[in-house]
Amino acid sequence: MVQNTEKYTVITGASSGIGYETAKAFAGRGSNLILVARRKDRLEALNQEILSCYPTLNVFIKATDLSISDNVFRLYEEIKGYPLQTWINNAGFGNYDTVSHQDLNKIRQMLHLNVEALTVLSSLFVRDFKDVEGTQLINISSAGGYTIVPTAITYCAAKFYVSTFTEGLAWELKDNGCKMQAKVLAPAATKTEFGKVANDVTEYDYDKTFGTYHTSAQVAEFLLKLYDSDKVVGVVNRENFIFELKEPQFDYAGNSNHNQNIEK
User: Fold this and answer.
1) Given a cut of 50, is residue 229 above it in pLDDT?
2) What DSSP designation does 15 have?
3) Which of 149, 186, 213, 249 could form a disulfide with 141 if both were Cys (CB 3.0 to 4.6 A apart)?
4) Which residues contact 258 (CB under 8 A, 6 or more apart)?
5) Once rounded to an integer, what is the mean pLDDT over residues 181-189?
6) Nearest one of 262, 175, 186 to 223, comparing CA atoms
7) Which backbone phi and psi does 131 adopt, to 5 degrees?
8) Mind listing the domains of the chain with CATH numbers?
């Protein structure tokens, strides 16, 4: 892989878990970084870790809460002038609970972050960079974005949105001859802070709860495989935990005679 010391990779949710490991993985490939998350201290620690290994890289940190709509637009305005090549929407959190019992304030925040922020940032990035050679947008969904999981119905619905939105965008970019590629990564159980946040607990044992899971570093490797491929979907099979690269999974009515037809 040719190192790229001019272009930038943006990673949201970079302060821990998959985002943290993905930042280190792209740094290893020589990419300058713009790292986004709420916790400034975690971002600063990651910045120091990366620069200790790759001192010639440019790394910028942006501490902001993307569940607040104004912050989403503000973030993009601050960084759109950089020569961006890759945008990874990883920020998000989950929720385990029944629909009848779930905390609606938590659900509202989850939808703002997992759906609204991702959609706005994707749309702005596509608008400005869709015709730039080599650009990629990678949105982090979940195996629960292709399968409905008990007690995680609202979370899965949000991730189904991420999966269908990104697959549809991939078709749209292709149909319009754009240079950008849109891709969706769908990991299964991954040992991160996800379990604690989703269950509102301070301790969470992945060995007892899942038994089989991936580490954040493994998922970052999967993301790089997706990045290097010409496939749209990278998904972990929930039954055997094998990572697979695939074409879009949802039906696309691109050639249907029943689509809206507006004269331009």
Assistant:
1) yes
2) T
3) 186
4) none
5) 97
6) 186
7) -105, 20
8) 8-246 (3.40.50.720)
